C-alpha cells in the first residue's frame, strides 16, 4: 500500500473552474438560440485552433524574450513561440488572411470557444472563459456596424432578455481619437496615457462624472483605500473630455458623421425604440478598434459580491478593427465584429430565472439483483428496449447491493428504477418504482405499517409492458412539473 505522503494532491489551478452537467447543458441551451439568430442573419460557422503562433496574436505581446504577459506561451520543438489564444478575433484575422482568395467577401462568420488570459485571477475573473463571436470581414461601410448592433439586440431577445431590460450602446473610436488629439495625446509616444483616459471614460457608469474626473487627473482612491493612478491631465484637458462625454460632439469629426449614418440605418430598421442608442461614454479597451464600437448592457439590477444592488452591466461588445487582417495582408482589409461573454450572459439569465436544464430527464436505472451472465443479459435487454424508445436508461454497473443501488439512483436524480429479482423473473414481470412519487408519498406517511402496506408508487407489470409503463410514469412526472 502506498504511503499517504506519496499520494498526489488533487487541486484545481487558480483562475480555472470545473464545469458540471447542469451548467454545460444550460450554456448549450443558450448558445443554440444564439446560433439561430446568427444563421438568420446569414452568418456561417468557422473554427480555429486554441493555439496560434505568438506573433499572430499581435499587440497583447510585449517586447521580451518570453512573451508571457497576458498570454500563456511556450516553445515547440523547432523553437517557435506558440500561445493559447487570447480572444477569437486575432485567430480569425489570421484565418481570413491565409484563406483570402478562397473565401467570399464580405465574409460573415461566427464561432465560439475557450480563450485564455495569463492574468491574476479574482472574483468573477478567470484565466479560461468562453466567448461567442460574430464578424463581417471585407465591408468598409458603417452599414455593417449598424447590422452588428441590430443582431446583438436580436440575440439578447432570443435568449430571453426582454426589451427594455437591455440597451446596445454605440460610439466611434474616431470621435474619441479626435478628443485625445485635442488634449495633446496624439502620436505613438502617448499610447499608454491614451489607454488610461479611455479606461477612465469607460468607468462613467460605475463611478459617475466625479469618479471619471479623478481618474482623468491624479487618480482615485476607492473605499478600501486602494489607489488607481490617473491619466494626469490638466484641468483644461479634463474639462474637454467631460464635455465630450456630456454632448458626444466633436466638430468636423468623421466619426460623428459615421454615427449619424448608423443612427439613420438603425431608425430605418425600427431599432431606434430604445434598443440601440448612440452613447459617447462607450469605450472598448482594446487598441485595435478603429471606428464604431458597440456594447450590450443589461439594465436590470442584481446584488454584487458585497450585497449592494447594482446594474448588471455589459455582456457583449465589439467594434470595427480595420487594421487587424491588414497586418498579414499589407493592404487595407476592413472588418467589424462583436464578442459575447458566455459566462456573463449565462449568469444574467440565471439571475432572471430564465436558464436551467430542468427539461433534461435523468436516466432510468435498471437495478442488478443477480450478477450471473444470463441475468445481466436480461437487464441489458431492458435497458436497450428503453433506449430504443428514446428513454434515457442505464444498467447499474457498480458492485453494491440493492440498498446502495437505490441510493445511487436517488443521487442520480433518476425518475424511476426497474427491479427484477428471481421471483419477478419466474413470473415474467418487473417491478417499477416511481422515485418522485415515492418521495412525495414518504413525506406524507409517518406510520411505518402504512408505509409497508402501501408500497407507494411501485407497480408490478409484465416485461412486455416495461417501456409503456415507464413512459407513462415519465409523462405523469412531466405533467406535475407543469
UniProtKB/TrEMBL annotation:
Q: What is its EC number?
A: 6.1.1.21
Tell me the domain of life. Answer: Bacteria
Q: Which residues form the Aminoacyl-transfer RNA synthetases class-II family profile domain?
A: 34-363
Q: Which InterPro entries match?
A: aa-tRNA-synth_II (IPR006195), aa-tRNA-synth_II/BPL/LPL (IPR045864), Anticodon-bd (IPR004154), Anticodon-bd_dom_sf (IPR036621), His-tRNA-ligase (IPR015807), HisRS-like_core (IPR041715), HisRS/HisZ (IPR004516), HisRS_anticodon (IPR033656)
Does the UniProt entry include the keyword Cytoplasm? yes
- Family indicated by similarity: Belongs to the class-II aminoacyl-tRNA synthetase family.
UniProt subunit comment: Homodimer.
Report what the protein is called: Histidine--tRNA ligase
Q: What is the lineage of its organism?
A: Bacteria, Pseudomonadati, Pseudomonadota, Alphaproteobacteria, Hyphomicrobiales
**Gene name in the database record:** hisS
Amino acid at each position: 500500500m502506498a504511503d499517504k505522503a506519496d499520494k498526489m494532491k488533487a487541486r484545481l489551478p487558480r483562475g480555472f473552474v470545473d464545469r458540471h452537467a447542469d451548467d454545460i447543458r444550460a450554456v448549450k441551451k443558450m448558445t443554440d438560440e444564439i446560433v439561430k439568430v446568427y444563421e438568420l442573419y446569414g452568418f456561417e460557422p468557422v473554427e480555429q485552433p486554441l493555439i496560434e503562433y505568438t506573433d499572430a496574436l499581435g499587440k497583447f505581446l510585449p517586447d521580451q524574450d518570453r512573451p508571457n504577459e497576458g498570454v500563456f506561451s511556450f516553445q515547440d520543438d523547432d523553437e517557435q513561440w506558440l500561445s493559447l489564444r487570447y480572444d477569437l478575433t486575432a485567430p480569425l484575422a489570421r484565418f481570413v488572411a491565409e484563406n483570402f482568395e478562397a473565401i467570399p467577401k464580405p465574409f460573415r462568420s461566427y464561432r465560439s470557444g475557450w480563450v485564455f488570459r495569463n492574468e491574476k485571477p479574482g472574483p468573477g475573473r478567470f484565466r479560461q472563459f468562453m466567448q461567442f463571436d460574430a464578424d463581417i470581414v471585407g465591408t468598409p461601410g458603417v452599414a455593417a456596424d449598424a447590422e452588428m448592433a441590430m443582431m446583438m439586440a436580436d440575440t439578447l431577445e432570443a435568449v430571453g432578455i426582454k426589451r427594455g431590460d437591455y440597451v446596445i450602446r454605440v460610439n466611434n473610436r474616431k470621435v474619441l481619437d479626435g478628443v485625445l488629439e485635442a488634449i495633446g495625446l496624439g502620436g505613438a509616444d502617448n499610447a499608454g496615457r491614451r489607454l488610461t483616459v479611455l479606461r477612465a471614460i469607460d468607468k462613467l457608469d460605475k463611478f459617475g462624472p466625479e469618479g471619471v474626473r479623478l481618474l482623468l487627473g491624479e487618480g482615485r482612491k476607492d473605499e478600501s483605500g486602494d489607489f488607481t493612478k490617473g491619466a494626469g491631465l490638466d484641468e483644461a484637458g479634463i474639462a474637454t473630455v467631460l464635455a465630450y462625454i456630456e454632448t458626444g460632439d466633436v466638430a468636423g469629426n468623421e466619426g460623428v458623421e459615421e454615427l449619424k449614418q448608423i443612427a439613420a440605418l438603425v431608425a430605418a430598421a425600427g431599432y431606434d425604440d430604445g434598443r440601440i442608442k448612440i452613447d459617447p461614454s462607450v469605450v472598448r479597451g482594446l487598441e485595435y478598434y478603429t471606428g464604431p464600437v458597440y456594447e450590450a448592457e443589461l439594465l436590470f439590477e442584481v446584488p454584487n459580491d458585497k450585497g449592494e444592488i447594482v446594474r448588471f452591466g455589459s455582456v457583449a461588445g465589439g467594434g470595427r478593427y480595420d487594421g487587424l487582417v491588414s497586418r498579414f495582408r499589407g493592404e487595407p482589409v476592413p472588418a467589424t465584429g462583436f464578442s459575447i461573454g458566455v459566462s456573463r450572459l449565462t449568469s444574467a439569465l440565471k439571475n432572471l430565472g430564465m436558464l436551467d436544464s430542468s427539461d433534461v430527464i435523468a436516466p432510468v436505472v435498471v437495478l442488478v439483483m443477480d450478477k450471473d451472465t444470463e441475468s445481466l443479459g436480461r437487464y441489458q435487454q431492458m435497458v436497450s428496449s428503453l433506449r430504443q424508445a428514446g428513454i434515457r436508461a442505464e444498467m447499474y454497473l457498480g458492485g453494491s447491493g440493492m440498498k446502495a443501488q437505490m441510493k445511487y439512483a436517488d443521487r442520480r436524480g433518476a425518475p424511476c428504477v426497474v427491479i427484477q429479482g428471481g421471483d419477478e423473473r419466474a413470473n415474467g414481470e418487473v417491478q417499477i418504482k416511481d422515485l418522485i412519487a415515492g418521495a412525495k408519498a414518504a413525506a406524507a406517511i409517518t406510520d411505518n405499517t402504512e408505509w409497508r402496506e402501501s408500497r407507494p408508487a411501485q407497480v408490478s407489470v409484465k416485461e412486455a409492458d416495461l417501456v409503456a409503463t415507464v413512459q407513462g410514469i415519465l409523462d405523469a412526472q412531466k405533467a406535475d412539473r407543469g
